[in-house]
Write a structure and sequence with these properties.
Elements lengths: L1 H17 L10 H14 L10 E3 L4 E5 L7 E5 L19 H7 L2 H7 L8 E5 L12 E5 L2 H10 L8 E2 L10 E5 L9 H12 L6 E9 L5 E9 L27
Antiparallel strand pairs: 1-2, 2-3, 3-5, 4-5, 4-8, 6-7, 7-9, 8-9
């Protein structure tokens, strides 16, 4: 037992170093944390649990990111490289977006308030716009200027892809509205993949941002934004999030 404990402690130290800013070049750091630390800890291994949640039935873990005051990551417990993985389109693959949206309470808990629906966002970067080769959905506050731009554009966003009227951080995003309040019937990966296939594009070049929204009649919905790799554009919709949560921090409840 002492030998086993020593092995787990050694692995923990290795992973902590691997996921530090100094070792940002380790593209397997997230996978190593989830596979070699969070899952064993959930199974009773004598190591500290690093993940906020491990859901074996749902096939995912939730991890506090080292960047940001309230940013969390939803990470599959199976090996899934990223947005380009064909595994995401298989019929028995979990809807990770739905699970990530349900996990937004971790952001609320960190901020000690409940963010309005249209200030919460989920992001997945393209293959060239990410540093980690394990799928992870960024769960965090939406940037203030992006939230305002979407409020203004919202009435014109329909259920078919169309370019947004203005660029976001200099990039041309397109958007559509999802009339599915809890994503029980909609998987954004599948929704985008069908369009990309028709266009002859590559899923690895795509990025997605999901933002909570309301229809004109007040019904809860989502806006799904998409950009793709191009000259000077790595297609990282994470850029539209605010990891300082300045928007959400305006009315943080004091202890």
């Amino acid at each position: 037992m002492q030998t086993l404990t020593k092995l787990f402690l050694t692995a923990a130290v290795t992973l902590a170093v691997a996921w530090s800013p100094a070792r940002a070049g380790n593209s397997d750091a997230l996978w190593q944390i989830v596979h070699d630390r969070c899952l064993p800890a959930a199974d009773g291994a004598p190591i500290e649990q690093q993940c906020a949640e491990v859901n074996r039935a749902g096939g995912y873990a939730v991890l506090k990111d080292i960047v940001g005051v309230a940013q969390y990551l939803l990470i599959p417990t199976a090996r899934v490289t990223g947005i380009e993985s064909p595994v995401l389109l298989e019929p028995d693959t979990p809807n990770y977006w739905r699970e990530a949206w349900n996990a937004r309470h971790y952001v609320d808990d960190a901020l000690r308030r409940r963010l309005p629906r249209d200030e919460m966002s989920l992001a997945v970067n393209s293959a060239s716009g990410r540093t980690q080769n394990q799928l992870h959905i960024h769960i965090d506050c939406l940037a203030d200027d992006v939230a305002q731009a979407l409020r203004e554009a919202g009435p014109g966003i329909g259920t078919e892809w169309a370019p947004l009227p203005s660029r976001l951080l200099g990039h041309r995003y397109r958007a559509l509205r999802i009339d599915d309040a809890d994503l029980s019937r909609t998987d954004p990966f599948r929704l985008l993949a069908a369009t990309v296939a028709q266009e002859g594009g590559s899923m690895g070049d795509q990025t997605l941002l999901l933002v909570g929204a309301h229809r004109s009649d007040g019904a809860p919905a989502f806006f799904l934004l998409n950009d793709h790799v191009g000259p000077g554009d790595a297609a990282s919709s994470e850029e539209l999030q605010d990891h300082t949560c300045a928007l959400g921090g305006r009315t943080v409840v004091k202890p």
